[in-house]
Specification:
242 residues, alpha/beta, TIM Barrel, six-stranded parallel β-sheet, three-stranded parallel β-sheet, 9 helices, 9 strands, 43% helix, binds fe (ii) ion
């Protein structure tokens, strides 16, 4: 089983529409661990509905959850602090003021948009974030209608954006449009990171197996290793959350 770093998850209890309590967090991580996930970036929402503007609280929760996992699952999993930020100019200045979190205190930021956001808006946001010194990573890039048009993902990547897809649609049925698009982008080699986007232990649990099986069959092993682990490993740098 290939080791996996999960770049997108809602495992911290009570902060958003993710885990409801610490028991559920641990159960989600148990499921994830069984699928080969060894490190998880916790990315609670910052959006109109879920503010989460206390970075130290998120950092502390990650450390505590990591300790609990070690004690209860008898295994080491690293839980990195991060956030999934709904883009706005205001969010960008909050990031500058240190009120929102980048991924593991790097310059990389997991950023999302409304699914119907126009391409011009996403393009401008990517540019503005880069000008401000960040490296935006587009969260679940398969979700935006505007990015389905040929060449657009490549153009954003050319501007300096990182591309994250969710595992679940990659592992879907071949005739689903989103699954086909995700696989096409992977075959082109323009995807950088993958995430479970896990929210609970039920319909939004970690589900990597179908995607991993497809990737095993269809992608060359070097690229597969880089999207499952290598690119994230490089971004995160050191191996342990202290
Ligand atoms: Fe998410």
């Amino acid at each position: 089983m290939t080791a996996i770093i999960d770049m997108h998850s809602h495992i911290l209890p009570g902060l958003d529409d993710g885990a409801s309590d610490i028991q559920e967090s641990i159960m989600m991580l148990r499921q994830a661990h069984r699928q080969g996930i060894t490190e998880v970036v916790a990315t609670p929402h910052h959006s109109g509905q879920y503010q989460n503007i206390c970075p130290d609280r998120i950092r502390t929760m990650c450390r505590r959850l990591q300790e609990r996992v070690q004690a209860e699952l008898k295994t080491e999993m690293t839980i990195w602090p991060g956030q999934e930020i709904m883009y706005s100019e205001e969010a960008l200045s909050m990031l500058d003021q240190g009120n929102l979190l980048t991924i593991a205190d790097s310059r990389y930021v997991l950023v999302e948009f409304m699914p119907t956001a126009p391409y011009s808006y996403i393009f401008r946001a990517v540019k503005d974030m880069i000008l401000a010194g960040y490296r935006p990573i587009l969260a679940h890039a398969e979700r935006y209608q505007a990015l389905r048009e040929n060449g657009r993902l490549e153009e954003l990547k050319g501007q300096g954006a990182g591309i994250q897809l969710n595992f679940r649609p990659i592992g879907g049925e071949w005739y689903h449009e989103t699954t086909r698009w995700c696989r096409k982008m992977l075959r082109k080699g323009i995807v950088d990171f993958l995430g479970t986007d896990m929210h609970n232990t039920r319909e939004r649990s970690p589900e990597t197996e179908n995607a991993a099986a497809w990737m095993e069959r269809e992608l060359d092993s070097r690229y597969r290793e880089s999207v499952l682990m290598g690119n994230a490993r490089q971004l995160l740098g050191k191996k342990k959350q202290e």
